[in-house]
Amino acid sequence: MSVANIPGLYSFEYKAIDYLTYYVPFLKNYLYDKISTRITLALLLLGSMSIINELFITIDMFFLSKSTYTQLKKVKNLEDLLDHELLVDPKYFAKEIEDGVEQFESMQNFFKKPVHVSHVSVFCAIINGNDKYQPIVDRPLKFSFEFTPEDFESSKYSADYGCNLYHLKAKIYHFFKDSNTYKQLENSGKYDLSKLSISKSIHLYNSKDEAMNNEKLNQLPLCFLKIETGDKLKCEIVI
């Protein structure tokens, strides 16, 4: 019986089978029986639809996220981000409606949120605050930080946004105090390291070279300060 004489759906099935057996020979093992053939075709169709759906979701997520980062990077005064709607508007977060039952944000609002920062590199220049802010060491120290969920717990805002600026400054402070450079400076007796502090000594700059010294910014998540995963940041440690 020729394909042309087989009506409707059956005609489509036979065409699909002919196409698949010609271009994907190993599928012959699954297309020898009418029932198994239909099951195989249905699975292939559902799989194709799932891939297409995931592709569109990924594209949508990419453009929504890109739009958010574009808006954040246009803000000239970082303090203006303290009241950003993505930080304070409840529609962007899940909420508990009953005991143990949560109502989650819409897919669009979920994708609109910036992605938390998972790791950064920080290049720290050691600066003499008593000598016209001249560098003390020839080469800046490089610290690499990876952030885990434990680093997000101290954040004032949702853990979805990752760790905040103060947490990164604290890491820089402790890494510096544990470094050989710190021990050498301490042993030299030339510098008073007793006044070293997170708030006054760690001067950090984002990827746009904007200073993040205002203490109001300390509670902001890194992803709201124009910082993205993999960025290389500059820091001045003033002693």
Features:
transmembrane helix, alpha+beta, transmembrane, 8 helices, 239 residues, elongated, membrane, 3 domains, 41% helix, disordered N terminus, five-stranded mixed sheet, Ubiquitin-like (UB roll)
Structure explained in plain terms:
This protein is about 40% helix and about 15% strand. The protein is α+β, with helices and mostly antiparallel strands. It folds into three domains: about 5-65; about 75-110, no CATH class; about 120-239, Ubiquitin-like (UB roll), CATH 3.10.20. Strands 3, 4, 5, 6 and 7 form a five-stranded mixed β-sheet that branches. A two-stranded antiparallel sheet has the order 1-2. A hairpin with a 2-residue loop joins β1 (about 95-100) and β2. The longest helix is centred in the N-terminal third of the chain and has 41 residues, at about 35-75.
